[in-house]
Design a protein that fits this description.
By secondary structure, the chain is α+β, with helices and mostly antiparallel strands. It is built from 3 helices and 4 strands. A two-stranded antiparallel sheet has the order 1-4. A hairpin with a 2-residue loop joins β2 and β3. The relative contact order is 0.24. The mean pLDDT is about 80.
Length: about 90
């Protein structure tokens, strides 16, 4: 199971009416946030969204919007890198 990154995927928005059900979001999402059901994408794991923006960049119908880095995803990743390198992680986010 992927890590929970951001409470409720702060900026992730799926316009189901605009969705064509192509499944591109399912293919590119690194944390299985989406699934396709009845010909439409559905958000299945919003709490696993790290707001990387891959889904929005690859959605041919423009049905997905997300603001990369909002919700502290960038700070979380930077903290992991700092810890791996033995540097002090930031004490607060954003």
């Amino acid at each position: 199971m992927p890590l929970s990154y951001i409470k409720n995927g702060e900026t992730l928005v799926l316009d189901e009416a605009a969705c064509t059900g192509c499944g591109a979001c399912v293919e590119v999402c690194p944390h299985a946030v989406f699934r396709v059901e009845s010909g439409k994408a559905r958000v299945e794991g919003r709490e696993y969204c790290m707001e990387c923006g891959a889904c929005a960049r690859n959605c041919p119908s423009g049905a997905i919007t997300v603001t990369p880095g909002v919700g502290c995803a960038a700070a979380i990743l930077a903290g992991w890198v700092r810890r791996l390198l033995g540097r002090k992680a930031p004490t607060r986010c954003c």
